[in-house]
Amino acid sequence: MEKEALVLDASVIVKWFCEEEYTDIALRIRDRFFGGELNAVVPELMFYEVSNAIRYNGVLSMEEKLELIDDVFSMDFDVVTSNKKILLEAMESALDTDTTIYDNVYLAVGRFKRCNLITADKVFRDKINTNEVIFIGELK
Fold it and tell me: Going from the N-terminus, what domains does the chain have, and what CATH number goes with each?
């Protein structure tokens, strides 16, 4: 049986390391990923966004921040490299919905890989208004 594939955006993955609203749900997703039940698909952009969020975390020490970046790179994500098709799709969606290219790259990757996107960004979810994007709070 083929395991479920989901695109996880940085807002979900950051919750694996930082206690925030919906961290409990994000950790259940992480456990499914680590347990081999879930294929976690991410654009390479995710590494920059998660690293940036870790950088601005005021609680973690420098050493902890560096360790977390190492941890993220050691995970067996299905990493999708950006290409013209993905960026064109992201641009079209961003312009249609007045949202960022960054957020829409995740959506375009989901469309490319034929799987849904999980996000903790409710504003994006509401603006994009498609069943392809699932707000993490809806997974309770």
Answer: 4-139 (3.40.50.1010)
